[in-house]
Amino acid sequence: MKQRVVIGLSGGVDSAVAAWLLRQQGYDVVGLYMRNWTDTTGLKSAGCSYEDDLLFAEMVAKKIGIPFHEVDLSAEYRQRVVDYLFREYEAGRTPNPDVLCNREIKFDAFVREATKLGADRIATGHYARIVEAEVDGRKVYRLLAGVDRNKDQSYFLCQLNQEQLSRALFPLGELIKPQVRQIAAQQKLANAARRDSQGICFIGKVDLPTFLQQKLSARPGEIIEIPKGITLDESSADLASLARPWQLDPSMGEVVGTHQGAHFYTIGQRKGLNIGGKAEPLFILSTDVDRNLIYVGQGKDHPLLFKRALLVRRNETHWIRPDRSVEEGEEWRCLARIRYRQELKQATLISRSEGVYLLFDQPQRAIVSGQFAAWHDGEEVIGSGPIG
């Protein structure tokens, strides 16, 4: 009897080709479209609306010859992803809703709905790989980077657990994007040349302040420029101090403009400041939501844009491979990244009572509270957690 695989058909070319590949591999494939968001508030373009996505998903299912279903998960998406986004920004952190969408929706709520359709496994169009291995007589599932390093999406899957991986299939893991486009064209799939989606998972590309003002009020405040000559000595700092965001003060610089709310901005941001006449572009060095202040500095190489360490708090530390977890007091050399598509960096993972520290060999630009740090052993993602 064939295994039934329910695949999330999004309307994009990646999930379409993934579905075709599964059909070719002999699975009993069912397409399931998730309706997660219909609000257009703050969208920069309505060119990838959910109606268009649904239409393309239906056309692909018909072309491939698989059953097609639709499920409305918008209430859960709002509660588990969008409300989280608002809470994080209000607290002065910068969340990654795409990581949460995978953990909470695609590999949780979606799995529940797929099970109702008789799914043995679930599949998506992610560029990542899952490899089964045996460790001390027990089966483990290794999450590996996709072969296409330019499209590798293992970072977005860094919060998945062993149970979720055990039921997942990623048919595109061994392919590169041009091959996917080629297959779609050869099979005459309707979305073969359709542009990839951008922006927030299932929402799209948004004007963030406009989007956030649905729930967060504007609060005019001051923008303070910190000269490059002001540096903070960390040569004798302990690990906790190295990982703590810069503690800046208005006395260190001068007021150069105003903003509409510190919670609308993030470290490393350049656009949206509306301040000209400087020798170099201004970048945000730090935000203070309590005092409603934004600190900026000239140039992408401003010394206060860089930090050597970060902390993932103990109760937020997630191990994809629990058998590889690092006990309190232990250290482990690893590779790590703090954002999607960042090149993996050499670091030391240090476990302490308060959580897990990542101490990088070289200072990292724009370490942002709320974003996810992921640590690797080679091409395998071992664990992750939100930056404190």
How would you characterize the overall build of this protein?
The protein is of the alpha/beta class. It has 3 domains: 4-210, 3-Layer(aba) Sandwich (Rossmann fold); 215-305, Adenine nucleotide alpha hydrolases-like domains (SH3 type barrels, Roll), CATH 2.30.30; 307-386, Elongation Factor Tu (Ef-tu), domain 3. 23% of the residues lie in helices and 29% in strands. The chain is built from 8 helices and 18 strands. Strands 5, 6, 12, 13, 14, 15, 16, 17 and 18 form a 9-stranded antiparallel beta sheet that branches. Strands 3-2-1-4-7 form a 5-stranded parallel beta sheet, with helices on both faces. Helix 1 packs parallel to helix 2 (50-64), helix 1 (13-24) packs across helix 6 (177-186) and helix 3 runs antiparallel to helix 4 (97-116). The longest helix has 20 residues, at 97-116. The termini are far apart.
> In terms of per-residue confidence, which ranges show pLDDT below 50 for 5 or more consecutive residues?
none
CATH architectural type of the largest domain: 3-Layer(aba) Sandwich
CATH superfamily of the largest domain: HUPs
Gyration radius (Cα, Å) is 22 Å
Q: In CATH, what is the class of the largest domain?
A: Alpha Beta
Q: How many strands appear in the DSSP assignment?
A: 18
Estimate the mean pLDDT confidence. 92
What does the overall shape look like?
A: globular
Helix-strand topology string: EHEHEHHEEEHEHHEHEEEEEEEEEE
The number of helical segments is: 8
The helix content, as a percent range, equals 10-25%
Summarize the biggest pleated sheet: 9 strands, antiparallel
Structural class: alpha/beta
Ends distance: 48 Å
CATH fold-level topology of the largest domain: Rossmann fold
- What is the percentage of strand-forming residues? 25-35%
Number of domains as seen in the coordinates = 3
